[in-house]
Every structure is written in structure tokens, then in C-alpha cells.
Specification:
This protein is globular. The protein starts with a strand and ends in a 7-residue tail after the last strand. The chain is of the alpha/beta class. Helices cover 21% and strands 26% of the residues. Strands 1, 2, 3, 4, 5, 6, 7, 8, 9, 13, 16 and 17 form a 12-stranded mixed β-sheet that branches.
């Protein structure tokens, strides 16, 4: 059962760990650590909500090592999430919910995980929050980008500090950054694939900027932003077999599928080859939960193709992640002027 551990300092042994798979030696489970800084407002950073996404672990290890001999510029609260899954390099274990779907507004049945997330929120409610960052990786080939649910000036500046691409979330239930956005500028950051050391350095630099930034007063985005919104979330039906190599699967995805990420694709783009005689389709859910697969995907005799021009994102070749999460999202670009206000 996940019980929240509360600490006021990072254990010294944390700095000797070779990776998140060893974190269970230092932290017994989900852990919230409050660290004192010079400013009395608090930057909140969460990582390992998905146990196989390691950039946050390495970035925080490096960041805190850099400040071992110095007081942090502002208070820093850290949450290490699914440590049990991290020990096995899995997104989540089969008996667990997704740790990025358990936050207030989740709509799930009461569980140890939802109670644990609510306890984290209660702890943070007592603090003067400056910003909230939830660190993730993509399994597919994607650029650095952020995900936000608010379009106020401070949140847009937050996004611009990280990367030139940001994604406006829809009404996804139980997501940490959506829950946190009710309290402070908040976003999820997607930091490329796990295990890329150069990417970790970019995350450390970003977090240092946030620790040192005076405030959001009068802030404007520091660089142009390409802003997208999710139109539908694409899933493979449970009963439909899929593969990237086996031609007998109901859906045989092309090997270059990930190269479509954040690149506009015209109508007629092949998403999958169909097994002869297969009527398999992809499901596409909008924010209201309506299934619109037939609106976005068209059957030809041997292929499943886009029925209209769209921008895919988060396409992955990882079949486990496709089953546990989704195949991708379809996006549309929105003008910056549409986010004003």
C-alpha cells in the first residue's frame, strides 16, 4: 500500500544512487521532501509518476548536488512518485493505477493511491506556491515540450522558459499539473526519451532558472511559443492485435511512425496496414469522452489512413505503453492570440 513519507531533507545516500531503480533503498515509497530556501515561496517539482521516466531523477540529483554547500534560492518541495515501478523500470505495475491519473478531479474510486495524492495536495496547500513542475519522458521520438491547462501570462512565461512548444491539455481527469494549476502556474514537461544525459542538463538549467526567478509580476513569454491543443486521444481497442513487425496482427504499424510527431500530416497518411479481411479500427476520444474514430481514420482495402489533415504527437513504438496509455494524440495548432486573457 503506498503511504506517503514526509521528509525535511534529502537523504545523503540519494546522491550515491546510480539510478531510480535503486531509489527504494533510500525512500520506502512515495515521498514528499520540503527543503528550505532563501525565499519563502515554494517551487514544487514531482518526478517518477511513471517509473520508467528517469530524467527527473537524474536532474534532481544533479540540481541538489550543485546546492549541497549553498542554501537554495527559494523553498523547494520534491515529490518522488511511483518508486515501486521505478525499481523494475516500468511505467506502472499491473496492480497499480497510473500515478498521473490519481490527483484531485480524478473521478476514480477511493484507493490508497488517491488518498496519498490528496495528502500531497494538502501538504502543498499550506505553502506559498511559486510554480509546479511535473517531469516526464516520452517513450517515442518527440521534441522537448510542455503541457499546460491554463493560459494566463505567468503560465505562458513558464512554458516559454522551458521550450518553444507547448500543448494545451484538455479535460484529462486526475492529471497532476491540472490539479496544481488551481493553486499556481503549473505544467508538465516532456523531456525527450529516458536515459539521455544531454537532456538532463537542459532540465537542470530550467529548474535553476525557476529557483532564481524573482516573481511573475508583469511577466511576458520570453520567446515565441508554438501552441497546440489536443483534439482526440487515440487508443487501440483491447481486442485488436497490434505489431510493428508481425504481418499477421490486425494492425501493423509502419516502422517510421514516430517520425510523424509534431509534424503536420495530410489526409491519406497511412497509420496502419490491415491484416487481410480485418475491420480493425482505432478509437479516438475527445475531451468529453465521445468516441470519434470514424471521423479521423478511414479504411481502405488494406490500410487505415487519416481522413483529414492532423498533427500527431506522442506516437510510440512501445507496445506496452500503447496498451497502458495510448497510441498518440491528434493535435491542432492554435494562434497565440486565442490564449490571451
Amino acid at each position: 500500500m503506498p503511504e506517503l513519507t514526509l521528509l525535511d531533507t534529502v537523504p545523503e545516500a540519494f546522491f550515491t544512487l546510480s539510478g531510480p531503480q535503486e531509489l527504494g533503498r533510500v525512500l520506502p515509497g512515495p515521498t514528499l521532501i520540503h527543503q528550505q530556501g532563501q525565499r519563502d515561496d515554494t517551487l514544487f517539482v514531482s518526478t517518477l509518476l511513471h517509473g520508467n521516466e528517469d530524467s527527473g531523477f537524474y536532474a534532481l540529483q544533479q540540481l541538489l548536488r550543485d546546492y549541497q554547500q549553498h542554501l537554495l534560492p527559494r523553498n523547494l518541495s520534491l515529490f518522488f512518485g511511483n518508486i515501486e515501478a521505478a525499481q523494475t523500470g516500468m511505467r506502472r505495475l499491473s496492480h497499480q493505477p497510473d500515478y498521473n491519473r490519481i490527483w484531485p478531479g480524478h473521478g476514480l474510486k477511493d484507493s490508497p493511491e488517491t488518498r496519498m495524492a490528496a495528502q500531497v495536495m494538502a501538504e502543498l496547500d499550506a505553502r506559498n506556491l511559486f510554480a509546479s513542475i511535473d517531469i516526464h519522458n516520452n517513450t517515442g521520438d518527440n521534441p522537448f515540450y510542455s503541457c499546460i491547462s491554463q493560459h494566463d501570462t505567468a503560465t505562458l512565461q513558464l512554458a516559454a522558459l522551458f521550450a518553444p512548444i507547448t500543448l494545451m491539455y484538455g479535460a484529462v481527469k486526475g492529471v497532476q499539473s491540472i490539479a496544481m494549476a488551481r493553486h499556481c502556474p503549473a505544467m508538465t514537461i516532456e523531456c525527450g526519451k529516458p536515459g539521455v544525459s544531454d537532456d538532463v542538463g537542459r532540465v537542470v538549467h530550467f529548474l535553476k532558472q525557476l529557483l532564481e526567478l524573482p516573481d511573475w509580476t508583469g511577466s511576458q513569454p520570453g520567446r515565441p511559443l508554438d501552441i497546440y491543443r489536443t483534439v482526440v486521444r487515440v487508443n487501440v481497442p483491447d481486442q485488436v492485435s497490434l505489431s510493428f513487425s508481425n504481418p499477421t496482427a490486425d494492425l501493423l504499424f509502419p516502422p517510421g511512425l514516430e517520425r510523424m510527431n509534431f509534424r503536420p500530416q495530410p489526409a491519406g497518411t497511412v497509420f496502419a496496414h490491415l491484416r487481410p479481411g480485418s475491420k480493425a479500427n482505432l478509437l479516438a476520444f475527445d475531451d468529453a469522452g465521445n468516441e470519434l474514430g470514424n471521423r479521423y481514420f478511414l479504411h481502405t482495402p488494406d490500410k487505415l489512413v487519416l481522413s483529414q489533415a492532423m498533427i500527431p504527437a506522442m506516437l510510440t513504438h512501445d507496445e506496452t505503453v500503447i496498451r497502458q496509455d495510448c497510441l498518440c494524440y491528434l493535435l491542432e495548432r492554435i494562434p497565440v492570440s486565442a490564449t490571451a486573457g
